[in-house]
Amino acid sequence: LGPADLRAYLQGFRTMTGLSATVFSMDLPSLGVDFKVPFFLIEGREDHIAAAGLAGSYFERVNAPVKRIAFIEGAGHFAPMTHMPQFATALRADLRLIDP
């Protein structure tokens, strides 16, 4: 890693810091739980940012023509990057539900 990588990291971190107050104050259920499209959650079981228990509770309230939640064991918030094979498997399973 070099200086350009560090600059890119810091810029991304500053962007997230600016968004965090908005993101963490959102009340997703208040935005609605009825969807006319398939609804899928792929969640890291050890996610400490979007806790698995909270995600599961929200998922239970959702009404959608097709819905599925998948937990990736051993993964945290960045499951798509840290557990790519498991994430891809879960995503393919979701896609098969809408296009068998």
Rg estimate, integer Å: 16 Å
End-to-end distance, in Å?
43 Å
Work out the strand percent.
Answer: 5-15%
Structural class given helices, strands, pairing? alpha+beta
Low-confidence stretches: none
Largest β-sheet summary: 2 strands, parallel
Shape: globular
User: What oligomeric state is this?
Assistant: single chain
Q: Mean pLDDT score, rounded?
A: 89
Order of helices and strands: HHEHEHH
| Distinct helical segment count | 5
- Please give the share of residues in helix: 55-70%
Please state how the strands of the largest beta sheet are arranged side by side: 1-2
Number of strands: 2
Protein described:
It is a single chain. With about 100 residues, this protein is of the alpha+beta class. Helix content is about 55%, strand content about 10%. The chain is built from five helices and two strands. It has a two-stranded parallel ribbon with strand order 1-2. The model has no long low-confidence stretch (mean pLDDT about 90).
Task: List the keywords.
single chain, 100 residues, alpha+beta, two-stranded parallel sheet, 5 helices, 56% helix
